[in-house]
Design goal:
It is built from ten helices and two strands.
């Protein structure tokens, strides 16, 4: 269907949900291929990390308890110490590998979904083989944006820690409970806002001539006026991610069910997590288009088409035009 410029500008939460479902349904085979290639491995990594981390932590805690109950400098004490060290090392290596592969498949899946939706929007023919050729090129821009966001998050946490310590030192510990609650509310609100900016910056990095700090700045400008919608969708996705993780931990990791039932629940959780990741990427791309429409920055399909072809045909990059250079357009979904 065609969504007019004014209708796109006023799309709310439910409108975005509906458009996301229509986009996915219109190219079900292609999105299924993207899921199998990029999103499903990401979901496997996510759930496997929960299972293996729980196993290693249980062993570490058990050996720590045994170490406390063992006399120091005895052969048994030294043996447990070496075992505990190897388990800590394995746990740290697991987290490092989890972070690395999660980053890789997250950015690859983002590239694939955003590029696919942009092709659908411009009416270009898009195949999975074409997506595979383009994704590595788009991924390079996303990795630069990620490192920028990582630096911003790091600086934010350092500043928050300094502020909290200074505040406690100045105010004392008489109202520490109230102080921590007040601080936590603003700290979490800041994290949510920066996460939303990051997600939209990923889409900007793919579809515009901006990445890194420029993409984050552009993202901040775009979500003005649509903060409520973006925050609500973000919190909905986070809520369902927590639900899936909780169900997996309760029924699969810590469940007392038979192996067949645990495997069945694991497959269900895997499917639900992969679906959430796909819809999350689609939501972010639609929000990008909604924000551009809201600020009267109509997307020129010809310029966008040239930009996408530059990815696939090794042409020079063609930036998207601003609102002063284009005529009003429509979004095909």
């Amino acid at each position: 269907m065609w969504v007019g410029q004014e209708e796109m500008k006023s799309l709310g939460v439910f409108g975005i949900f509906i458009e996301a479902r229509k986009i996915i349904s219109s190219s079900r085979k292609l999105f299924n291929q993207i899921i199998l290639s990029f999103i499903l491995p990401l979901s496997v990594i996510f759930l496997a990390n929960i299972e293996v981390s729980d196993y290693l932590l249980a062993k570490i805690i058990n050996n720590q308890n045994n170490l406390v109950e063992t006399r120091i400098h005895t052969p048994k004490y030294n043996k447990i110490s070496r075992l505990l060290f190897s388990e800590f090392a394995a746990f740290l290596l697991l987290k490092a590998a989890y972070f690395l592969f999660t980053l890789i498949f997250s950015l690859l899946s983002t590239s694939a979904v955003v590029y696919t939706i942009a092709c659908i929007h411009t009416g270009q023919e898009v195949t999975f083989s074409k997506v595979l050729r383009v994704v590595p090129k788009v991924w390079k821009r996303l990795i630069l944006t990620f490192f920028t966001v990582f630096a911003v998050f790091f600086a934010y946490n350092i500043a928050a820690a300094i502020l909290l310590i200074s505040w406690i030192a100045f105010m004392g510990t008489c109202n520490i409970g109230f102080l921590m609650s007040f601080f936590l509310i603003f700290y979490v609100a800041g994290l949510v806002y920066m996460s939303i900016v990051w997600q939209l910056a990923n889409t900007v990095s793919v579809l515009e001539d901006s990445y890194g700090f420029e993409a984050m700045k552009r993202s901040r400008q775009m979500i003005k006026g649509k903060v409520g919608v973006t925050v609500f969708i973000f919190l909905v996705l986070v809520f369902f991610h927590i639900v899936v993780q909780g169900v997996f931990q309760r029924l699969v990791v810590h469940g007392l069910l038979d192996m067949a039932s645990r495997v069945a629940y694991a497959i269900v959780c895997l499917f639900l997590h992969a679906t959430l990741v796909l819809y999350g990427h689609v939501f972010h791309t639609i929000i990008y288009l909604v924000c551009k429409s809201y600020h009267n920055e109509n997307i020129d399909k010809l310029a966008l088409s040239g930009h996408l072809e530059a990815y696939s045909d090794h042409q020079e990059y063609v930036p998207l035009k601003g609102q002063e250079d284009v005529e009003p357009g429509k979004l095909m979904v």
